[in-house]
Amino acid sequence: MDINLTLIGQTIAMIVFVWFCMKFIWPPIMTAIEERQKQIAEGLAAAEKGEENLAKARAEADEIVADARQQATSILDQAHARANEIVAEGKSDGVKERERQLAAAKAEIEQETNKAREELRGQVSAIAIASAEKILKREIDDKAHEDILGKLAQEL
Amino acid sequence: MASEGGHGPQTSGEYIAHHLQNLQVCKSETGEWIWNHCAGNPMAINVDSMFWSVFLGLLFIWLFGRVAKKATSGVPGKTQIVVEMIVDFVDSSVKDTFHGKSRLIAPLGLTIFVWVFFMNLMDLVPVDWIPMLSMAIGIDYMKVVPTTDVNVTFGMSLAVFVLIIVYTTKYKGPLGLIKDLTLHPIAPPTKGLGLLAAPFVIAFNFILESVALLAKPVSLSLRLFGNMFAGELIFILIALLGIWQLPLHFGWAVFHVLIVTLQAFIFMMLTIVYLSLASETH
Q1: Are B145 and B167 in contact (CB under 8 A)?
Q2: Residue B4 resides in a domain
């Protein structure tokens, strides 16, 4: 417990340690800390900027997708409309064609009918004339059968 | 435990006295080096205190120097992180208190904090281990906690005291130092009849301020010494209790961890406060 030379020894030791610490320990550690602080601050700023950019890019992408979607919808609508149009056109064309063909067929049929009728009329007249000739050859009495023959020719 | 040592049965008093005895060396009147019979000799040196304090100081230098040498601003190692935490803690304490610019104060605070902490920490080494080991190799006395030696704490506060004077002179000039000591706390009258009273006022101020100035290193060192000495003494007393020392020792050691850290911090903080007071103009 006495005060002795240890006091001075301790003071000297302390001065040496403090000097050493001041010269060789404090500055490099402090430099490292401050440098890292700077780096971290820069890193955080960069991260923030990156996040901002990402948000911007994402908004842009969203916009593009929305645009594309809208375009797709309009194209689809147009396609639908066009398809309907084509179908309607086809339908009306079909109807017209059918009517045309139907009319043509009807006309042909009538023609054929008329032709057959004329032929038939000719033949019947010939037969009538032949039978009349035969009747006439047997009983030449033109005057007696004139009214019958006339009636026949009228009826044919 | 009470019968420890190679000198046969020991009384509790002897055991305690043995533990509180420094390993001393001094020169006798005939010029010979003598060991351990130096009571009252002002030229004696407490070899154990010096050894352990320098050893622990070198430990601090080695540990922190190693980190400082390899200090990287990239991803730090674990040791570097611990060291940086301590450095940053000291740095922020200094920045909070000391507003001037000084390259010395922060490293001074760091050295004091870590060194005193290491010296205090020796208190947690069981009180008999190192003394018994040293006795086995023929050294009779070994006090392992340097801060329980008043010389050690006074040595440090002496350096702080010198720094207080230096800082006051540096920031306020020699005249400022004298003014600090004489013109506070009572301003001496400067005119009229009161001028007669001025010398007395100045003398009164001087006595008051001198005491205040001297009290700084004394209180600084005695606070640390008292805390650590009392803690060590209680460890020694607990060691006398036989088997019951185990729970008690544990409890006291846990409590002591707090004291160890706190005292190191207080020593550092007060040093910074004193120096910032010295460098601040009123």
Answers
A1: no
A2: no
